[in-house]
Model the fold of this input.
Amino acid sequence: MRPVAALRDWWARRSLRTRITLVVGVVALVALAALSRLGGSLLVTTVINAADVELAAKASSVADSVRVGVDPALVRIAGVRIVDVAGRPVDGGAALPLSDAQVRRIAGGEELTTGGGTDMRRWLGLSTVGPDGAVRVVIASADLVGSATILANAASWFLVGALLVAGVVALAAWSATRAALRPVDRLRRAAATLPPGERLPLPPADDELRALAAEFNLLLARRDDAVARLERFTGDAAHELRSPVAAIRAQAEVAVAHPDPALAEETLKSIADEAARLSSLLSALLALARADSGQRPPAQPVDLVAAARAAVDRAHSTAPEDGPAITLAAPTPAVVAATPSEVALVLDNLIGNAVRYAAGLVRVGVLPAGRWVRLVVEDDGPGIPLADRRRVFDRFVRLNPEAGGGAGLGLALVEALVHGRGGTVSAGESGAGGARFEVRWPSP
Done:
């Protein structure tokens, strides 16, 4: 594993408290180290400026003496020398430990620091003209060894102080993070032991912890609702599956116990009808399970007008001769974002439901509406009571079981498929007093 990947993996496995403490400690250390460096620089500048002020005063005093004609050889001030423009001493002393270039820089008014460590020295020059017209350079210098020691000690203490303060900040961050996360730990433990139907108490402060508890409660509510739906669905599915299975078994047992060639055809036909009903129920359950799982294929453009025309043809081919008339109104092309199988299932269920209850007419309409496409299926049957127009989309709900039909899963499947593509479906009343279903599908 590469070092960067290993470090990232190590970091990801640390606790939130550890990561916060490390980040705060490192930031504090870097900031304090920068401040220490800045403080050391300011201290060096202060020491050098103080030395320059003292050296300037000495050089100015000697320059005044030279300017009025005092013999340079008679000037005796510690740390002050008098040289000509070539850097040769004119005060009778030894040669300066400076190069010609350094003398020229000092003569030009530039301050200069030579040496380092225990041999640091500060130089400052001031040019003047004697009564004889000769140019003299008064050079004042001071030993900075003591100041260098002080600066070195100060830098060491600055670094030690930065480390100590960074450690204190990291410890404070650890304690503060622990105190801040303690309510989260309590919330986690409470959520882990919470019985079904119960909710977490909301903290009194309107802060992030309260928002987290509220989101937990919403999640728990969705969980309880999903569990209740699953239990209800499982019970209803078991009940619905029991009827065709029991009928098939009973008829088969009667046929075996009392073999009668005259009733064999009728018995086999009944068994085939119950088997078809069972197969249809299982297909609907599987389609609902796939819709509930959220694992659906990518949407693609589907010609809703062509799909509706094909669904109407299928309904005509399976409807009885005295069944209702089915008309299709699709004035303009319309394309929806779904899959062909989903569109076919929605159309077949809505049209089949309308044919089952219609008195004489079923109307299917397709109309584009901006970013949406409207599919309307209405009939002239008895209609749906206002109180049941939301309930008809629940699973295994049949308002009129005597009218025959499926197991009450068709409209639930329609709603699941349409909602899965971001659309809506609603039930209402048609102009003829029957049922009216409107689906709004998004366009691609």
Summary: The radius of gyration is 48 Å. The mean pLDDT is 79. Residues 16-67 form the longest helix (52 residues). The CA atoms of residues 17 and 177 lie 6 Å apart.
